[in-house]
Amino acid sequence: MKIRDLDLSDNALNQEHEALGIPPIEQIPLHPVVRTAVWFAILTLIGLVALGAAQVFGGSWDEGMATIQDTLNDPMFWKAVLVGLLAQVVDGALGMAYGLTSTSFLLATGASPALATASVHMAEVFTTGVSGVSHAKFGNVDKKLFVRLLIPGIVGGLLGAVLVTQIDGNTLKPFITAYLLLMGVYVLSKAFRKHIKSRKGEPRHVAKLALLGGFVDTSGGGGWGPVVTTTLVGTGHDPRTTIGSVNFAEFFLTLASAASLYILVDETIWHVVAGLIVGGLFAAPLAAYACKKFSTRTLLILVGLLIIGISVFNLYKTVFM
Predict the structure, then answer these.
(1) Which of 105, 151, 162, 270 is in the most buried spot, having the most CB atoms within 10 Å?
(2) Which pLDDT score, from 0 to 100, does residue 199 have?
């Protein structure tokens, strides 16, 4: 029997749920594990905001306001806002490319790979936190996949943080780029098949994939989404819950990586970090909502084109620049 084209739009899913006697997506309660993760993320973000405010206004109110004024007058801050906005729209909706986009921007300004990845991961703590909570709210997080990604991803991120402070992580990029280019072509080809089949059963090799994705993400300035999301979606798993689960797990990976990089790297471009955070926070809820609304075929096309474009550009830089 042929499997029809999947439609993962909100209305289609709710119609199927109604036929099966399942509550609409918005009314399905969060699994206790996901709910705990959501509250941990919320409380962590509140604590970091309070800590940041204490540092800015720790001396005096006037000094704090002067620091804010200087940041707002810095053109680099507003460029970072724009980069963070665009990068998070793509990352939240497709599960990839925030780190790659933001790191490329920082490297273009002359930052070292270690400084660039440290700054991006500090900004990503906020953007992935808000994005992950948004995905959970919209029912895009699968508890089993989220848990299977969590610990291996964190371990890989910590190993990558140690490497990037000792060796230039760009040496790994040609190999990862070639792999991603092949996966992008494969994903795109699936979108144009007559029937898109959704693989049944649990994804395989998730722990190994998360370990590699976390390592590449921290050591190369980006890659968690492209490695993990592209592989899982490319092998036939539900794009909506895959993107949501990978995106939420990224918050915990990023939190661990940012903490280790903060210790290992002596400097940080704080005004750029602030810009990336501001831009990303505005885009995160919108991107998660877009992910819920897109059909499977649309997501496959967008993911495939995005990863092919990034991979071709990176290969071009490696060969000709």
Answers:
(1) 105
(2) 52
> In the structure encoding, which two tokens stand for residue 187, read together?
């994903």
∠ CA(102), CA(268), CA(288), 5° rounding? Answer: 35
Which carries the bigger pLDDT value, residue 119 or residue 186? 119
Residue 242: closest CA among 298, 202, 189: 202
In the chain, alpha helices (H): 10-20, 32-56, 61-72, 75-94, 98-108, 113-137, 143-164, 173-191, 206-220, 224, 230-234, 239-264, 270-293, 296-320
Mean pLDDT of the chain: 76
Residue 193 pLDDT greater than 80, yes or no:
no
Contact 273, 122 (CB under 8 A): yes
CB distance 92 to 288 below 8 Å: yes
Tens of pLDDT, residue by residue over 51-65, are 888 888 877 888 888
pLDDT tens per residue, range 114-167: 777 888 888 889 888 888 888 888 888 988 899 999 999 999 999 988 887 777
Q: How far apart are the first and last CA of the chain?
A: 51
Burial annotation 216-236 (CB, 10 A radius, 16+ → b, else e): bbbbbbbbbbbbbbbbbbbbe
Q: Which of 52, 123, 115, 114 lies closest to 87, judged by CA?
A: 123
Q: What is the DSSP string of 190-216?
A: HHTSSSPPPPPSPPSSHHHHHHHHHHH
With 0-12 / 13-18 / 19 or more C-beta atoms within 10 angstroms meaning exposed / middle / buried, residue 182 is middle
- What's the whole-model pTM score? 0.72
Single-letter amino acid code for the residue at 98: Y
Query: Rounded to whole angstroms, how far apart are CA atoms 212 and 92?
Result: 21
